[in-house]
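Quick question about two entries, pasted in order.
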Amino acid sequence: MLKAKDIMTKDVITVSPDMEIISAAGLLIEHHINGVPVVEKDGKIVGILCQSDLIAQQKTLPIPSLFTFLDGYIPFNSLKKMEKNIQKIAALSVADAMTANPVTVSPETDIEQIATLMVDKNYHSLPVVDDGILVGIIGKEDVLQTLISKK
């Protein structure tokens, strides 16, 4: 049975949390990739930055819907969620736009588990981590390659 270590890309393009958002967007476009792991200097992964995180900067800020109850206002959506939206829209650095604490897999994770995560959670790429250190990345294309090689 194939495992993450068998199909992962080992030469991973990464960004640092303090990198400017414009530079990170340029990397994604230049390399035709959907996302990059965000890594500290010691190799520990702290987040993932995807195209959708960057596209969030172009959206409008939803005004929370309110209703009144006993002369008080109650928002329909959470203030935490609104605060997070504001932070992504105004992001100048990768740390402001990234998704922190991303879902990762180990080098020993079975391909079936990887495929299930990608389909069920709509992940386009999964960092491969060994003892907290990034050792590779798996994209949907890597999983598709296994179908071709079975023929």
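Here is the second entry:
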Amino acid sequence: MKHGIVVADSGPLFSLALISRLDILNALFDEVKIPPAVWNELIFDRSKPDYWQLYNFFNSKVNPVTGVNELAFVMDYGESESVLLYKELNAHFLLIDDRKARKIAESMKVNCIGLIGLLSIAKDKDLIGPLRPVFEKLLQNKRYYSKELLNTILLAHGEATFA
């Protein structure tokens, strides 16, 4: 069973592209949407190795935001547009990793999920193999996640934790 509409911020999308698993989004959700500000962040630098992967996956998933963005003064533009689009579409999830932005979104009754939670769900549904190598690749490529969180997820899936 899929989980409705997800609106995504760029951070988790860069991480999913890094591990070549953008397909997890289509496997878990009926619809994947991003606002224009996130699209601009994804396609800003054509020299990035994951540029075409991101471009091809998201070029048909950009959805305009119609409301006034009053959140831009408390979080970055991509995050704030993501929250607005979530509200406008009455989405089921907001995929976002930034701690400050997530807390603000959750205070507005936005149902947030981060990349690590998403990968845990994908593991539960047998969409992904062992998580530890995935987490190692993320960390080696300067994607910053709490080792405490990673270890909690690894333990829940019966995998070896980080020291």
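Reply: The chain has a mean pLDDT of 94. The longest strand covers residues 5-8. Hope that helps.
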